[in-house]
Specification:
Order of helices and strands: HEEEEEHEEHEEHEHEEE
Oligomer: single chain
Radius of gyration: 19 Å
Structural class: alpha+beta
Helix content: 10-25%
Number of strands: 13
């Protein structure tokens, strides 16, 4: 970690207890964009806990998180009240992406989306987003089939306060529905929560109606007309 931080232009170690008299090994404080984050689970301390995951992206089928040492990064104590603020979450994702450069890094578990991503897939998609690319809707969020044949996002609410739900008429098949959903995820992350109904143009030029429902916790989407 010291070598990675020293070589990185993206973050630094702002506090390293193991270099002093403290016995609090396995913990570091990282600084990025003026914000501090706690990194735990480093040897010789105990490994971090990995919450159960439900979605995997690029991870081999036989991968077992329990067979690996997990390190955990989270906002520092002074950021607890603002841990869901967009700049904090975006910086957290950026640091996590850079931590995949550690020797032996295999995967990243992004708990808000219950997603497990292969290390290089996570790094590439997140850093491309940080540099101005599209939001990594598969990794920092996930898409879940609903019982009625539609699709719903998981994890978007961390960025916008709302999840996305596509009605069945917007999901003629899983591939087309996912393409539409990913485009909408990117737009919503860029523009933030929506508070009123409006029309959106889908990937094939189709008209889509977007409307906040369920006390604005869900953005529901169905086919409309201009």
């Amino acid at each position: 970690m010291r070598a990675l931080a020293a070589a990185s232009p993206h973050f630094s170690i702002s506090l390293d207890p193991s270099t002093g008299d403290s016995q609090d090994d396995g913990w570091l404080e990282l600084l990025a964009n003026g914000l501090t984050f706690d990194l735990t689970g480093l040897a010789p301390g105990p490994a971090g806990d990995v919450s159960p995951t439900a979605h995997s992206f690029g991870v081999r089928q036989d991968f077992d998180p329990a067979a690996h040492q997990a390190i955990l990064i989270k906002p520092g104590p002074h950021l607890v009240a603002g841990s869901a603020m967009f700049p904090v979450v975006r910086t957290l994702a950026m640091i996590a992406a850079n931590l995949t450069r550690l020797d032996g890094a295999q995967a990243v578990a992004w708990h808000p989306a219950r997603a497990l991503s292969e290390a290089s897939f996570f790094r590439r998609s997140v850093l491309e987003w940080i540099e101005g690319g599209v939001f990594p809707g598969l990794g920092l969020a996930a898409l879940v089939p609903s019982d009625d044949g539609g699709l719903q996002s998981e994890g978007l609410a961390l960025f916008t306060g709302q999840e996305l739900r596509l009605r069945p008429d917007v999901v003629p098949d899983r591939a087309e529905g996912s393409k539409t959903a990913l485009r909408l995820l990117n737009w919503l992350v860029e523009h933030g929560a929506i508070t009123q109904s409006f029309m959106f143009t889908g990937p094939s030029g189709e008209a889509l109606q977007l409307e906040p429902v369920e006390n604005s916790s869900i953005v529901e989407v169905w086919r409309g007309s201009h």
